[in-house]
Amino acid sequence: MSAVIIARHARTPAERFKDAAWVAFVALLLGIPMVGLTTVDEGGALTVQTRFGMLAIFVGVSFAGRFIFRWIMDQVRGRRAAKSAVAKADRTPLAIRVIGWAVLGASVALPIMFSENRYVIDTATTVLIYVMLGWGLNVVVGLAGLLDLGYVAFYAVGAYTYALLFSHFGWTFWEALPVAGAMAATFGILLGYPILRLRGDYLAIVTLGFGEIIRVILVNWTELSNGPNGIGSIPRPTLFGLPFERNPAEGTQSFATFFGLDFSGMHRIIFLYYLILVLALLTNVFVSRLRKLPVGRAWEALREDEIACKAMGMNVTNVKLSAFAIGAMLGGFAGVFFAARQGFISPESFTFTESATILAIVVLGGMGSQLGVVLAALVLVLLPELGRNFSEYRMLMFGTAMVLIMVWKPSGLLASREPTIRLNKAAATGGEA
Amino acid sequence: MSATLLSVENLTMRFGGLTAIDDLSVSVPAGKITAIIGPNGAGKTTFFNCLTGFYKPTVGSVRLAHPKKGEMRLETMTGHRVARDAQVVRTFQNIRLFPKMTVLENLIVAQHNFLQEASRFSIAGIFRLSGYRKAESEALKTAAHWLERLGLTDIADVAAGDLPYGTQRRIEIARALCVDPVLLCLDEPAAGLNPRESAELNTLLLSLCREEGIAILLIEHDMSVVMNVSDHICVLNYGRKIAEGTPEEIRNDPQVIKAYLGEDDEETASGEKAA
């Protein structure tokens, strides 16, 4: 491994050579069975033949490729270091990074390992929906410190926007996604305006009311939302226009026919899983980036001290509204996915319990922690699932687990906060001189 | 006598039946240190709140002769615009830092408006376009400059709330300086500092004023600070100005002595009780 570790100092040619030689050696080891040996069908019997010429080319290409790649990377890095005298914070603790990558790897590999197990993939999809919702709510609660008990309202707005756009105008999932996000953001701002002056408990009560208002409107405004009967037969998302159907319409292709596969119901399930994985990861990247921008720092500053923010010349109104709007938009995206996955939505899916669960995920995960949200979502979705066998004690188990976590880790599973920017001391003092 | 930077005229602030500031007129010269002193409850902090847009005065005007932007009426501006547009920046009596954020982050947040504009509604920021990167490294340079100046460089990456009280006071001043103030309003910057720290504060205030040309308005109880650094002192009592002048004049002013020590029997009794 030592060869591939990224060194911080400038590399000498000898070091680069050694690094490339290591890679070539690994390529040789891997290449002997994969490239060097091949089986040939000779008159009905399989015989093994060697292809050392091919292997030599393979190893040579690996060596040269590594050498050139390393050289380009060093150039890029050198230029980047020269450009900014001050280093950026990209030094998340190693343990967190390892866990993060492990979770990501596991979630990418999951459908491959359980490609026939619909239950596992369905549950994993549910976990990911909650992860995405958690990351969205994290903007409002974790970063901006505005306690929102009605987050499910934006989830509902997203879901209903898609359902209505489809049933009235025949919009597809991909067309409705951005519109639903914008719609949810608008509702976020609508909620944000009247409660700009509220804080803490009072804010929580109003957001709670807002969540209920949206649900009650959906139940009672039958002409718009079809009331408690909900809206059904919402189409599933397609892969670049390829539907996941057994019998595609005349003259069109489905996913299975296009790729020449046998139709399987699992294709769609796995596709939905990867779709929410991508949406959730995009959310994560988006929110992590925002956190390191002025707007993200302003959210955190707002959580820490609103009066000091004002004294620093910050327009607190804009900061609050942007937090509500972005959080709502992410909730809206998750809602669209939810509607597409279920194929049927009704106000019953958007009760206060949902808001409470999402909030519990954020609080349990550790306010503002992205990885914490993932772990908490796993705990909160999987615990009730595991408890299915002893269903009458399920909520009891759930409650006990939450109490225990709060006793052991009062500020959440992962509570440490990473600075958004660090000072490179050598560069700073050097720059001043 | 240098030019007037801030002129307050007939300022009155009433809270229901209570008149916290009563027909106060003060002028703050440019490039000098002006101190506001007075017994507890004299209306000093209320005066600050009126200047910096946290309160809207009942009566009166607050004019700032901004060196670049011309005359501004602070009493008509809301809280954040006083700091953003008029560059009148304040600190707080009970320190208000962003405790969980690092010292450096505190100083970067103070440059929010500059960075926010460079990030073009966060779009340039999300894609880290060169315009934004340049603005960010500029903001870092400003922050690094003030960190160095106030001796905070070594603790730049420590959460502000974990640091000792005296250091937090300095961080708050450094943060205010990052807003690029034309007038710096400090509300009891020496409160809770030990004698060595307040001596350092004196040096700092003098150098800010003399070298950077920043006008400073100071509320302070610590007379070792007030008398050593102020060019001009204004004494308030019960919301009224009772005296104004150089430190020497104030020290010998009978009105001031009376306000601080009390005069007749009744006043003396209550003064002793309070002490």
Explain the overall architecture:
Helices cover 68% and strands 3% of the residues of chain A. Chain A is an all-alpha fold. Chain A folds into 2 domains: 2-83, no CATH class; 96-408, ABC transporter involved in vitamin B12 uptake, BtuC. In chain A, strands 1-2 form a two-stranded antiparallel ribbon. In chain A, strand 1 and strand 2 (45-50) form a beta hairpin. In chain A, helix 4 (118-143) crosses helix 11, helix 4 (118-143) packs across helix 14 (352-365) and helix 4 packs across helix 15. Chain B has 2 domains: 1-87 and 181-275, Rossmann fold (3-Layer(aba) Sandwich); 96-180, 3-Layer(aba) Sandwich (Rossmann fold). A 6-stranded mixed beta sheet of chain B has the order 6-7-8-3-9-10, with helices on both faces. Chain B has 12 helices and 10 strands. In chain B, helix 3 packs parallel to helix 7 (165-178), helix 6 crosses helix 7 (165-178) and helix 8 (195-212) packs parallel to helix 9. Chain B is globular, with a radius of gyration of 20 Å. By secondary structure, chain B is of the alpha/beta class. The interface between A and B is large, with 37 and 51 residues. Chain B: InterPro entries: AAA+_ATPase (IPR003593), ABC_AA/LPS_Transport (IPR051120), ABC_transporter-like_ATP-bd (IPR003439), BCA_ABC_TP_C (IPR032823), P-loop_NTPase (IPR027417). Chain B: This is ATP-binding cassette domain-containing protein. Chain B: GO terms for molecular function: ATP binding. Chain B: Residues 6-263 form the ABC transporter domain.
